[in-house]
Write a structure and sequence with these properties.
CATH architecture of the largest domain: 3-Layer(aba) Sandwich
Order of helices and strands: HHEHEEEHEEHEHEHEHHHHHHHHHH
Strand order of the largest sheet: 4-3-5-2-6-1-7-8-9
CATH topology of the largest domain: Rossmann fold
Number of domains: 3
CATH superfamily of the largest domain: P-loop containing nucleotide triphosphate hydrolases
Strand content: 5-15%
Distance between the termini: 19 Å
Number of strands: 9
Helix content: 55-70%
Radius of gyration: 34 Å
Length: about 600
């Protein structure tokens, strides 16, 4: 939720930039204002299939918004946000044109299950990006947005990769497991990767009303998290008890459901933290603007108060401006760090992906060499898809970590030790890889039926029968004798076995070629996505720091001009100008003081039923 004090402060700072004719600083504040205008605090509800994610969302908002049943699983993300009246909107985003607005279709809430469940919309054949549900709920009024995601199935599933790609844009993640069993390896793997992209994570253990041993499972889960080095709140809840308590207004049952701790986490550690972040980032932006506005006034005031030192002051400011101008040059240290870092990172990303996929290729070929592809193809294709998707997801996580590290290095070289704000990095949607890369192509299986076996056996048996029959005829035996017939049967059986082995080896070779083609396609597509993502990050960082350098250069140019004009001021007007400058600086100092107070405030806590 936009903090009113932050919005008021930005509006005041915008008036100052307009009054002092600094449109460049105003452009930065307009971006800050736009960021504050977005009330969304996104919380992703993630987890394996059938763990109770949708029921958890329903219990949080006390409404059956997400379809829930034993044979229903979520196929399309469902976004639940605040609205004055209940509404459901289906959203389709263009896969080819990013500038094209998404297609939005309103439907009755009773038809939601037809579009977001696997039963009503299998494999999302309707092509929906997500469904948006609006509800008049106090919990959501502060800007909290709950996103019910399809079961992630670990890093190695398509849904898992899609969820992983949007984690950097989430404010928090709630990993849902149930009390039926302890954390699985895919859950821990997904959670470890998620922590690297979105550190604000909570673990929820559902269905405590169904399993009496849930406390034991909870302790085991905490042990797994501690062993994995994952620091996250673990909250046991029962959605059924929460919904029943809400209907009967039973406070004791509400306490037993465990939802108070979960709601406290959402309000205190997610919404409140987002408000605190808005305050700090807004305060920093306004402080930076105030400092830039004051630069030229301080220089002129110094020259007005001490005209004899004005010449030395102009020389110092000119040198500072030269340094600021140098920051805008392509040869600046931060530019070199950025360009070299992106080039190195693209190379490292490509090598990391190829190395992971080469390992998968070797393992796949070993599996195919040890079995007949015709017998294991379905299981093999699913295994390969999981391995490839897992490799792409892990490569994306690693890329995001390295990109953030590079941004910090560039900022350090730009500011030379001073603390400056970093831009928000835009990561690509690697989760869309499944739609760009075709499925593993199954080689054609050459049939070897009874008729073909009989024909092949007769062909091989004829040779054996003739060869042994002719050999035994010299001993006075007939062409058809027990030895020649036995040899014919033996040779026929061997010919059939050899033909079956040849066909299996052919299937193995064709399957291996299909795997190599599939891996090549994945490598091509994911490498292209990674390169595009790094180029976007490079442009974002370049534009961000170039704008900062231009702001500083503009401020110093004004400072030099102000100091030079101060020397020419008549003695009679000097004192009046000094008073005016001090008054203007007092106003700017007051603006900076308001920004510092805003940064020191903590977000007020709210409650929700």
């Amino acid at each position: 939720m936009a903090v009113p004090a932050a919005v008021d402060l930005v509006d005041l700072a915008l008036k100052a930039t307009s009054a002092y004719q600094r449109p460049d600083l105003g452009a930065r504040l307009q971006l800050t204002r736009k960021r504050l205008a977005d009330p969304n605090v996104r919380v992703l509800i993630v987890g394996e299939f059938k763990k109770g994610k949708s029921q958890l969302v329903n219990a949080l908002v006390n409404a059956p918004v997400c379809p829930v049943d034993d044979d229903i699983s979520t196929a399309v993300p469902t976004v639940v946000r605040h609205a004055e009246t209940t509404s459901v909107t289906l959203v389709r985003e263009s896969a080819t044109d990013d500038d094209r607005p998404p297609e939005r279709t309103d439907v009755p809430i009773g038809q939601l299950a037809q579009y977001v469940s696997e039963a009503g919309n299998p494999a999302n054949r309707a092509g929906l990006s997500y469904a948006e549900v609006g509800l008049p709920r106090k919990l959501l009024a502060g800007g909290l947005v709950l996103v019910d995601t399809p079961g992630v199935g670990g890093l190695g599933s398509a849904h898992g990769a899609a969820t992983m790609s949007v984690l950097p844009s989430a404010d928090a993640v709630v990993l849902v497991s149930d009390a039926a069993q302890e954390y699985t390896a895919p859950e821990l793997e997904f959670l470890s990767a998620a922590m690297k992209l979105c550190p604000n994570v909570a673990c929820v253990v559902t269905k405590t009303d169904l399993y009496p041993h849930w406390r034991r499972i909870l302790e085991i889960d905490k042990g797994h998290l501690e062993k994995a080095g994952i620091r996250a709140d673990v909250l046991p809840v029962s959605s059924t008890l929460r919904l029943h308590a809400a209907q009967t207004q039973d406070t004791a049952l509400m306490e037993e459901s465990g939802f108070k701790d979960l709601i406290s986490f959402l309000l205190r550690k997610v919404v409140a933290r987002a408000d605190d972040l808005d305050r700090r980032s807004t305060a920093q932006d306004v402080l930076d603007v105030a400092e830039q506005l004051a630069t030229s006034m301080k220089a002129e005031l110094s020259a007005q108060e001490d005209p004899e030192r004005a010449e030395a002051l102009v020389a110092e400011l000119t040198k500072a401006k030269s340094r600021a101008d140098a920051l805008r040059q392509r040869t600046a240290r931060w530019q070199t760090t950025l360009n070299d870092g992106v080039a190195d990172l693209i190379s490292d990303i490509d090598y990391d992906l190829r190395d992971r996929l080469r390992t998968i290729t070797r393992e796949a070929e070993e599996l195919l060499s040890a079995a007949d592809p015709a017998d294991i193809w379905d299981q093999f294709a699913e295994w390969l898809h999981q391995q490839v998707t897992s490799a792409a997801s892990a490569n994306f996580v690693w890329t995001a970590e390295r990109a953030r590290w590079l941004a910090e290095q560039v900022a350090e070289h730009f500011a030379e030790g001073a603390e400056i704000a970093l831009p928000e990095l835009r990561f690509g949607d690697t989760g869309e890889m499944g739609g760009k890369v075709g499925t593993l192509e199954q080689p054609e299986d050459e049939k070897f039926g009874i008729g073909q076996k009989l024909f092949t056996g007769m062909r091989g048996g004829y040779g054996g029968l003739l060869m042994i029959g002719l050999a035994t005829s010299f001993a006075g035996m007939a062409l058809l004798n027990p030895l020649s017939i036995g040899a014919g049967l033996l040779f026929g059986g061997k010919t059939v076995r050899d033909e079956k082995r040849r066909l299996m080896q052919r299937r193995q070779a064709e399957a291996k070629n299909a795997v190599r083609r599939h891996i090549d396609e994945v490598t091509f597509q994911v490498s292209k996505d990674s390169r595009d993502m790094m180029r976007r990050i490079q442009r974002d960082l370049r534009d961000h720091f170039t704008v900062l350098a231009e702001e500083v250069s503009t401020s110093l140019s004004g400072s030099v001009a102000a100091a030079q004009s101060a020397v020419k001021t008549e003695t009679s007007g000097r004192e009046r100008r000094i008073r005016d400058l001090k008054a203007e600086l007092a106003r700017i100092d007051a603006l900076g003081e308001r920004a510092r107070k805003l940064a020191s405030q903590s977000a007020p806590t709210t409650t929700a039923s």
